[in-house]
């Protein structure tokens, strides 16, 4: 798709990008007629619509990375004008909002422009003479899905939004184009309807993988509907008292006034239908095939590779929808520590770190929280001990590191790199040729002015095991970003089932499948055997907390934490916790392993919804500002 992007901008620039975000009157009818005279230019227009998708793998501008609390840049980046990071630091504003997807400014993309182009495509696709009906219907379904997705993206950020179902005719007057925000339930029903329409003519699966990977399928449409309806049933959007007074200019309430449990029932149905569609299309949880290793890999290594490659192995069986426009390259370099003593690793940027609160969310090896495990020394987690040879698949033998890094679940070691940890991969797929991270001040991973982790932890999960950092160069094996994968859908289903019916065999089934891939026992067994709160899974409240933590662990660094904390209305409690890490300027273990305060994030109630830019409110008097702004 990238092949066409520059050409399209040059040819159709005035049509695609010149208009205000809500100027939905077509402004170049002659050009539109030209586009839809033949299949070739019509296809290129469709690919341009795909190009409006957020840049999911952009480590600097895509707000789910530096805009949340999963990654924190080092001191070298303090003065860098990165829009997303300004959100994390509490500088969001109404004059020029950061990551403005409403108007497409300051790190955002213009979703309303994208929606207008979807409508233009749908108005004209059936006029193309050199296409058969099957292909026209399929491409129309793709555009309908994308139209739904762009609306969903805005809904998740702003709550009530204008719904642009049709572009207005050129004869429309100024007042007609001044649209209003619609109530939450209307937005959700509109998006769900579009997805139901799209699924009819989308293919069951991609047949020509060499040319069509990244294109949409029935499974993607049903999975997005499941995500939509779970989001709509969640506390932020389902009768939140904080928005009881949020009304439009006509006095209509924009948020539902009361909690509706039936929304969870609707979400359950959507999740079940999505899972059935995915299974029918051949999607399954990814398990690494040890035949790809040059040796019979250890069970620990194989499990670690299953976890890492569920994200990094392109177009694997777990990926329901993958964005081929987004290749994780710079994101890998920012999360790859320096592993060699030479200064020639100029491509290893290595400036992102993982805050301590994210590190501590991972379970112990027994599959329960570190604060609950009866056999794990929670109070002594910041003290140190020396790793032994039997721990070489996790930690460097005879090396001193924190107790926090011992006896954790496999996802801990698959997701995180840290002082004394093994970094498996690097073109060395043999347990006897392990590379280890050493990151005290002056050591290999912390001997450069700007290439170091501010917290002492790196997001190893984001780095493809086949990316190679050598003494002379860094070779990045990029991968397309999986927007939705099956583990995410399984956990959404468990969450919806628990909220609707409470704990039960079906509720545990789907979360336990995800845990099994990570080498853990089921929830009930783990809590009964190892937790200080063995009865927690038996109650809706207790299991809710478990499911939430499971999502934060399984989907770590994939952007879901950013949205989940908001829809659960837990962001105020979590994001207001200070950002901390080890004292990475310490040269000895005694100095290094001291918890250091880095930043005090401020998340206010108004931050749950994005602000609408003040200029847009002035231009369109029918719009209202998000509460608190």
From TrEMBL:
The keyword Membrane applies. Keywords: Cell outer membrane, Membrane, Signal. PROSITE patterns: PROKAR_LIPOPROTEIN. SUPFAM superfamilies: TPR-like. Pfam families: SusD-like_3, SusD_RagB. It is found in: Cell outer membrane. Residues 95-228 form the SusD-like N-terminal domain. Residues 1-23 form the signal peptide. InterPro entries: SusD-like_N, SusD_RagB_dom, TPR-like_helical_dom_sf. Residues 317-629 form the RagB/SusD domain. It comes from the Bacteria. Belongs to the SusD family. This is RagB/SusD family nutrient uptake outer membrane protein. It comes from Chitinophaga chungangae.
């Amino acid at each position: 798709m990238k092949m066409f992007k520059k050409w399209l901008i040059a040819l159709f620039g005035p049509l695609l990008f010149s208009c205000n975000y809500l100027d939905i009157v077509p402004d170049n009818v002659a050009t539109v007629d030209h586009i839809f005279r033949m299949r070739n230019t019509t296809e290129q227009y469709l690919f341009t619509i795909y190009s409006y998708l957020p840049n999911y793998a952009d480590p600097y501008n895509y707000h789910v990375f530096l805009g949340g609390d999963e990654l924190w840049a080092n001191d070298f980046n303090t003065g860098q004008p990165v829009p997303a990071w300004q959100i994390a630091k509490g500088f969001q504003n109404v004059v020029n909002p950061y990551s403005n997807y409403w108007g497409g400014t300051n790190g955002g993309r213009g979703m309303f422009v994208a929606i207008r182009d979807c409508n233009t495509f749908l108005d004209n696709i059936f006029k193309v003479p050199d296409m058969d009906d099957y292909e026209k219907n399929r491409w129309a379904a793709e555009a309908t899905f994308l139209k739904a997705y762009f609306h969903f993206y805005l809904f998740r950020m702003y709550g009530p939004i204008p719904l642009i179902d049709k572009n207005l005719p050129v004869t429309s007057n100024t007042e007609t184009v001044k649209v209003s925000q619609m109530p939450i339930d209307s937005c959700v029903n509109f998006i769900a309807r579009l997805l139901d329409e799209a699924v009819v003519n989308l293919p069951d699966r991609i047949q020509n993988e060499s040319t069509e990977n990244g294109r949409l399928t029935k499974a993607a449409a049903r999975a997005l509907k499941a995500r939509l309806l779970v989001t709509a049933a969640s506390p932020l959007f389902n009768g939140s008292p904080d928005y009881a007074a949020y009304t439009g200019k006509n006095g209509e309430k924009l948020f539902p006034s009361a909690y509706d449990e039936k929304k969870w029932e609707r979400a359950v149905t959507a999740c079940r239908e999505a899972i059935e569609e995915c299974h029918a299309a051949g999607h399954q949880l990814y398990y690494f095939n040890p035949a790809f290793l040059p040796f019979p890999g250890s069970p620990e290594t194989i499990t670690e590779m299953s976890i890492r490659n569920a994200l990094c192995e392109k177009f694997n069986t777990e990926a329901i929808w993958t964005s081929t426009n987004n290749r994780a390259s710079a994101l890998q370099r920012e999360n790859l520590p320096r592993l060699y003593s030479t200064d020639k690793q100029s491509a290893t940027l290595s400036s992102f770190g993982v805050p301590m609160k994210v590190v501590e969310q991972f379970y112990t090896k027994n599959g329960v929280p570190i604060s609950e495990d009866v056999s794990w020394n929670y109070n002594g987690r910041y003290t140190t001990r020396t790793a032994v040879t039997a721990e070489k698949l996790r930690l460097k033998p005879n090396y001193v590191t924190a107790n926090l890094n011992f006896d954790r679940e496999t996802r801990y070691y698959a997701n995180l790199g840290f002082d004394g940890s093994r970094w498996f991969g690097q073109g060395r797929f043999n347990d006897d040729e392990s590379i280890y991270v050493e990151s005290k001040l002056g050591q290999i991973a912390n001997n450069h002015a700007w290439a170091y982790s501010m917290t002492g932890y790196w997001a190893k999960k984001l780095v493809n095991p086949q990316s190679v950092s050598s003494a002379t160069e860094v070779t990045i094996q990029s991968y397309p970003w999986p927007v939705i994968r099956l583990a995410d859908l399984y956990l959404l289903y468990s969450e919806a089932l628990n909220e609707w019916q409470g704990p039960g065999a079906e509720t545990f089934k789907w979360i336990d499948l995800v845990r099994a891939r990570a080498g853990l026992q089921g929830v009930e067994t783990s809590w009964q055997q190892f937790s200080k709160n063995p009865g927690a899974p038996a109650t809706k409240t207790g299991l809710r907390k478990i499911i939430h933590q499971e999502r934060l662990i399984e989907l770590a660094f994939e952007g879901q934490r950013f949205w989940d904390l908001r829809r659960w209305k837990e962001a105020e409690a979590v994001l207001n916790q200070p950002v901390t890490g080890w004292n990475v300027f310490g040269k000895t273990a005694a100095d290094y392993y001291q918890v250091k305060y880095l930043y005090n994030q401020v998340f206010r109630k108004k931050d749950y919804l994005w602000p609408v830019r003040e200029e847009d409110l002035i231009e369109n008097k029918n719009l209202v500002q998000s509460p608190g702004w």
